[in-house]
Amino acid sequence: MKSVPLIQKVARSALDKGIRELLLFFSIILLALPGFSQVDLVLSPASPTVNVGDPISIVLEVQAGTTDIVAVQAFLDYDPNLITVNSVDYEPGNEFPVLSGPTFSTLGQIDVAGNTFSTISGTFDLITINFTATAVGVASIDFHTPTGSSRVTDVADPAVQSVLGTTTGASINIIGPNAPPTVSITSPGNGTAFIEGANVVVIADASDSDGTITNVEFFDGVNSLGTDNTDPYSITITNIAQGTYSLTAVATDDDDESTTSSVVNITVNPAQVDTEPVITLDANATVNEGGNINVPLSILDADGDNLTISISSASNEPTNLQSNQGAGNGIQVEPFPFDASGFFTESNVSSSAGSYQSNLVFTPTFGDGGSDGDGSGIYTITVEVEDEDGNVVPAVLELTVNDVDQVISATGNTVIEAESFDNQGPANSGSGNNGIGVESNGGLTNIGFTHLNDFATYEIDVEAAGVYNIEFLVARQPNAARGMAIKSDGNTIGGIIVTGTGGWTTYETVSAQVTLPAGSQTLEFLWDNSAATNGFYFNIDKFTFGPLANQAPVFDLAISDQVNVEDDVVSLDGSATDPEGDNINYGATGLPTGLSINASTGEISGTIAVGASANSPYDVEITAADDGNPSETATQTFQWTVNSLADLPPTITPIADVEVLE
To answer: Averaged over 553-566, what is the pLDDT?
Structure first.
């Protein structure tokens, strides 16, 4: 495009021929005269930043100041690979009544011209160019001003002289597509409940990876609750009304792109008058020693107060034991066990304002079933709750722990804690009227304060009859010996003697071997050394049962060598006794012909056969084998001589006196 025809075209539409010729003359002179640096052409904004796909508008501003001008023509070049022209619009009131163009092409050219019959001065916008950013890069928009070109940017004054000063192009920084902001409501949590009248603070976390957050607006549904322009972003809902709220936050970034958070639902309950907490807890529960039980606990406070929970326990056993747990340090009378703390825990605890849920878990062990021989121990479990209004509410669970026999293993060791007795006593003057005691020393819990005729019993269940070794862990300060009998169901089966161990907390092992029948029975310890009638005996921490190796049967009689005659009738006792009470099977070898042994009783019986003397004497062996594990066998041997009937001297049958009459 040539500048002269462009100006002529504009002029021809409104002027007569003479004027057109004058304008043509001015046009030619405009291109020929040297330029003046009085009027600047400026594109603005000069260096904007946009995202790919964003629109951007560039304004061509004429800065004439006090210089009068009559014509402007501008030729612009741009990079069509980075930006696309959507439209070029003359600004209303640009004061140029004679206009040409504008024209633009996909080759990156924009041409515009304007002139007037009167003079114009000052600063004004000539055109607005509307682009779209199409690719990442820096897109320059420059004025085409080279001398000699048909596309020369210039400005003419009334004398038709060039008064063009400087031209300032624009540089558009095009970056990748805008990343939307992220936003989430961090408080309150979804499902939170409030009481009407409360001030609820809503807090949101918002960020923009490729820019900045300009504002965060908060909504309840479609209703705006307020906007915050600074981080941390929050609003306060004062004196909130009853109802349900669907809260969202909308974050907007510096590219005017917005993101809406996930919905947070809250509930506002009506204000309530002060109410006491309500405890739901079973009044009674029962569990066996060695077992477990879960008792559910639920506490609700209708007005949503924070709750303070305390749980305590106490034993209901009679106060018939001495214990150093109390203020008396060894003479205080207290129950044992003292409380349920040794076998009580809580599980599945869930706590929030106005609510507390858990399981009370009880796992009693041996000894927790009581110590007075009544077969059970009873504990009072007290749950107490206090709310923020000062209301204190208690609830009580009576827990019964049943005694269970402690099983004595037939194959391995069984440890019994001495303080796990089921009964003790007696309350006699010789024992201070308090029976035995329980004390804790050096991390051990033991029985002590034992006197003459004190006793302690333990209910046990022996898996298999047999001989057992019992190892007692004992301590005694004085050197003089003291004794204790061991009984099963009232029958004395053994005992121990304890001498000084060096102190009441210096423990040594003392052993006893006892024979126990199978099944349930009462094991009793009786402090019975009649030679000592005063002073404490000894402490016991624990005792351990261990089965001894199976013992062989013992023959009741030692059988001497036997002598018989053929045809004799024989009955000979070959029985035995097994220490563990095992069944016995009898056998015999080398018996004279005609004799046999009873496999169940060990009796040798029969009639010795005539002719048996021919193989005499006989070397006889009898065996007694038990059915223990492993089986053990006892044997004994003797010689059996059988004489022949022919070897016997003749016998004369006595003849009675005879009286003959003449």
So the answer is: 95
Pick from 198, 202, 288: which is nearest to 250 by CA?
202
Amino acid type, 71: A
- Dihedral sign for Cα atoms in the order 301, 305, 311, 312: negative
pLDDT in tens, 579-619: 878 899 999 999 999 999 999 999 999 999 999 999 999 99
- CA-CA-CA-CA torsion for 410, 413, 418, 423, nearest 10 degrees? -10
What b-and-e string marks burial along 552-585, b requiring 16 or more CB atoms within 10 Å of the CB?
A: bbebeeebeebebbbebebebebbbebbbbbebb
Are 632 and 625 contacting, i.e. CB atoms less than 8 angstroms apart? yes
Q: Does the predicted TM-score (pTM) go above 0.85?
A: no
Distance CA 540, CA 509 (A): 10
Quote the CA–CA distance of 337 and 229 in Å, as a whole number. Answer: 65
**Cα–Cα distances in angstroms (integers) from residue 525 to residues 255, 393, 448, 478, 513, in the given order:** 91, 46, 13, 21, 14
Over residues 537-553, the pLDDT tens digits come to 899 999 999 988 788 99
pLDDT tens profile 372-408: 777 888 999 999 999 998 999 999 999 999 999 999 9
Q: What is the token pair recorded at 650?
A: 């003749």
517 upstream amide cis, omega within 30 of 0:
no
In angstroms, rounded to a whole number, what is the distance separating the alpha carbons of residues 391 and 376?
35
DSSP code of residue 222: T
Burial label for 596, CB within 10 Å (0-12, 13-18, 19+), is exposed
Indicate the DSSP class of residue 11: H
